[in-house]
Design goal:
Layout (H helix, E strand, L loop, with lengths): L2 H20 L4 H14 L5 E6 L2 E8 L2 E9 L2 E2 L3 H15 L5 H12 L6 H18 L4 H21 L3 E2 L1 H9 L3 E4 L12 E4 L3 H11 L5 E4 L6 E3 L16 E3 L3 H8 L4 E8 L3 H11 L4 E6 L11 E8 L4 E8 H14 L1
Parallel strand pairs: 6-7, 8-11, 11-12
Antiparallel strand pairs: 1-2, 2-3, 4-5, 9-10, 12-13, 13-14
Length: 342
């Protein structure tokens, strides 16, 4: 298969993936469809990596990379009609009914399928919310409140955000559901969080975390609290003399949360100087975490006091994802995407 044919085939597979992801299809379905279409056109070397906000698709021939594409897919409302149409087309492609150019034309038609009028969507959201509330035991008043909630939600999504969540809107909306527990920081805390708790010591942070973890679905342990503290602490001045300081271990907050978290997801971080993967996996298991973000702080552009990072993400299921140097803001988005897959 020549390079031009490979590109044509993967253009079709990529476009199908774009439409599915933008229309609310599950990530594994998107990957499955991309792979199905690529193989139907004779491309066996493709590799699709799909996050909730984008697709990275590559193909190689021998040692030469013939195709690479990264697409960012903004969040938008689910479109099951588009998902159904793409799934049907992918099955027809697998049966050999469409050549790449014809399939691409069909996909572009699917992509251009008109949305329902906004007021239809707003009304459907309200009515659907009210019906579900009533079906699950709510009374008339409960159903009216549910109708209003669904109505207001879609007004917000379709008219204020115009059907797509920008990065700013996503941060504001998500931040409204986040409890931030923070010690000393070198940056200002944006005024978007549901709750902000300031602490001074590792003990204070442990107490704050244990008092608040139950009301949260994800616990992200991004702080780097001190591992040791002075045992013979004194509030009085210590006279100048030969002095020996004895240290004691501080509480392991992540391990404490891991022991009681239940169905909640615990995400931890691992800054290492050697044996990165091995040490990160040990920490993941020891703390009963669901995901660890590990980095080698000896590498240039990684670790502390820089705006970039180099990371390896390891999940409890054993999946490993390596990321080269990138802005920390972009890595944060990737971490969030992986959290939603846990």
């Amino acid at each position: 298969m020549n390079a031009e044919s490979t590109r044509e085939a993967l253009d079709v597979a990529s476009l199908a993936g774009d439409i599915l992801l933008a229309s609310g299809a599950e990530i594994f379905r998107v990957e499955e469809t991309i792979d199905r279409i690529a193989r139907a056109y004779g491309v066996d070397s493709s590799d699709a990596f799909v996050l909730s906000s984008g697709i990275f698709l590559t193909a190689e021939s021998g040692k030469k990379q013939e195709f690479a594409r990264v697409r960012h897919i903004p969040l938008s409302a689910a479109r099951l009609d588009k998902v159904t149409a793409v799934n049907q087309l992918s099955r027809e492609i697998e049966e050999g009914l469409h050549m790449p150019k014809e399939a691409k034309a069909w996909l572009l038609d699917i992509q251009r399928m008109p949305d329902k009028p906004r007021w239809h969507q707003v009304l459907a959201s309200g009515v659907g919310s009210a019906c579900f509330c009533f079906l699950f035991g709510g009374d008339v008043v409960d159903s009216m409140v549910a109708f209003l909630s669904g109505f207001v939600l879609y007004v917000y999504l379709l008219y204020l955000l115009r059907g797509r969540m920008s990065k700013i809107a996503t941060n504001i909306s998500g931040g409204a559901l986040v409890t931030l527990i923070a010690g000393r920081m070198s940056v200002d805390i944006p005024d978007i969080f549901e709750k902000v708790i300031r602490v001074k010591s590792t003990g204070d942070m442990l107490e704050a975390v244990m008092n608040n973890y139950e009301e949260n679905e994800f616990i992200v342990k991004a702080a780097a609290p001190a591992d040791y503290r002075v045992k013979n602490f004194s509030i009085h001045k210590i006279k100048a003399k030969e002095l020996s300081l004895e240290l004691e271990k501080t509480p392991d907050i992540a391990k404490a949360v891991g022991a009681v978290k239940g169905d909640r997801k615990l995400i931890i971080f691992s800054a290492e100087t050697d044996d990165l993967i091995e040490n990160a996996r040990k920490k993941l298991a020891a703390k009963n975490a669901d995901m660890v973000v590990a980095n080698d702080v000896t590498k240039e552009g990684a670790g502390f006091n820089v705006d970039t990072n180099i990371a390896t993400i390891i999940t409890k299921a054993g999946k490993v994802y390596d990321y080269d140097i990138m802005p920390k803001s972009r890595l944060a988005e990737i971490i969030l995407d992986h959290m939603h897959e846990l």
